[in-house]
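Letters spell out the chain; backbone shape is given numerically. Take this protein:
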Amino acid sequence: MRCALILVTKVIQVAVLVGLLSGWATAQTKSLLIEDMTWTEVRDAIAGGNTTAIYYAGSIEQNGPGLALGKHVFIAHYLASKIAEQLGNALVYPTMPFAPTGDWGRTSPGVIDPSKKSGHMQFNGSVNVSEETFAAVAHDVALSAISAGFKNVALMCDHGGGQSGLAKLASEMNKEWGPRGIHVYYIGDLYSKEKDLMEDYLPKHGLPVDYHAGTDDTSELMYIDKIVNGDSPKWIRPPKLVKSKGDDGTGVNGDQTKATLEMGKLFTDAKVSLAVNEIKQLIAAGK
């Protein structure tokens, strides 16, 4: 009897261990973010048909006293996986956290003139990279994806600055790689057409258009904050949300106080759908 109990115990232990290892292995390979994967998992995923690479840039910029500086980064990082999931054949490169946001105010070596700062760089914590640097990073990441074996690279950005640079870069790279059956595409619909949706939706519901960090942006971040961080908001400061016309020094131009989870889902779902549709159309056209 004792031997039988020992044997049963060992069998149970082995079964539990196998289960844990199986769960661990699944957890290691389930992510579509290449930063979560090993190089062999990326290799095998590409060989298995995941031949589209997603490059989604964010921005570190002021969003008033009630929203974290990383708003665009958090949105881009979350939505990139959703876009990849819906495509069904894509992997996601790490979120680019920086974008053109204004002027540093550097007037000469070692001198920053506050009066020469512009855009978001007038507010503490914002980070600016030049249009050239922004495009150069996107170029090198796209080239890395091509080198790895991806056949299609989709470039997109959640922030307004740098959109034209990505469009130009995609066009230039496509001219080089298109004849070889490899394509680099600029995905602009998730930014421009989502803004069109917002500009139509908000006034119809008695809300001011969101020019910066207003109802749209706040709703999107509120929704993603809820999904990612649960009932303990990490990126929203509810008591500090403001309504502003952009003339009070808060950095906000819109009404953050009217943000809702429902609008956040509406606008983020729209971004995903717009991106997926545009990527599919461009790949189908093969240009």
Remarks:
- The helical segments are 2-30, 39-47, 71-87, 131-148, 163-177, 189-204, 215-229, 261-285.
- The beta strands are 52-57, 90-92, 106-108, 111-112, 152-157, 183-186, 243-245, 253-255.
- The chain is about 50% helix and 10% strand.
- The chain has one domain: 33-285.
